[in-house]
Amino acid sequence: MARFSGLLKESGHAKRAKVGVLLLNLGTPDAPTASAVRRYLAEFLSDPRVVEIPKLVWMMILHGIILRVRPAKSAALYQKVWTAAGSPLMDISLRQTAKLADKLKADHHDVSVHLAMRYGSPSVASTLQTMHQNGIDKIVVLPLYPQYAAPTTGSAFDAIATELSQWRYIPSLHFINTYHDNPDFINALADSIRADFDAHGKPQKLVLSYHGMPERNLHLGDPYYCFCVKTTRLVIEQLGLSQDEFVMTFQSRFGKAKWLQPYTDATIKTLPGEGVRDVAIVCPAFSADCLETLEEIVGENGHIFANAGGEKFRYIPALNDSDAHITMMANLVKPHF
Q: Rounded to two decimals, what is the model's pTM?
């Protein structure tokens, strides 16, 4: 009864909806330890949107093999990127949340901003419950995945729907499902690359590395690959690069299935042999730096490039909590207040 007590206070006249913005990202372990990573991976890899294998078969593989071996290895990688502020993804996400709240307040919008992670803490369910307890009855959801994909944005919607399916009164909801071609996003991304070129010189090759997914998903109708292609095209047009000055690749493949290609690590390995010894790499599918950018790209792929004969390798950071990124977020959510 207490959960819906706010409705009982209505006096019959219409009131203005109390608006909340929900930022949503993938998630992170609570600590760079094997036990924390195991809990995180168990939740992440149990999502049928993430692994589309018959559940009984996959649960046997997940609990019988993967969760016995992978947590310790992943924990060692997380330890390399962990900072005094904790997980880079969580630290940046909290800063994004605070800065977006400040930006909306400065723009004279009486709106609260909340953060949830699809896996781990703070959970989607607990965050939505907090928003409800605060009297919010209109929610604008912004999943921080620039390019829609079923395993990311689709799964975020699933988590929201699962929680709201248990509520008697459903709040007004606006779900922003993609912003891969949003002009503010493209401009911010292109400007960040341009600033890097100005500071460090134009590389022989710009690598745009997106998070991978099984190729099967594309054939089943997932638009992610097409959205990555469009983001790339729009950014390259802004930068005025020719076809031989950039390459689009996909990273973070998992398992033995065929994933979207070309693969980032394989591409990085072959570039020095083609005479390309100076590269800059940017990851347009990541709204905040995390394990996949700071360790996989900077660490692993940097070593691959150097061992193959490469000389200059640099990573262009994600948009993180930059002013341009926060302005983009604000402009995405404001039309729905």
A: 0.94
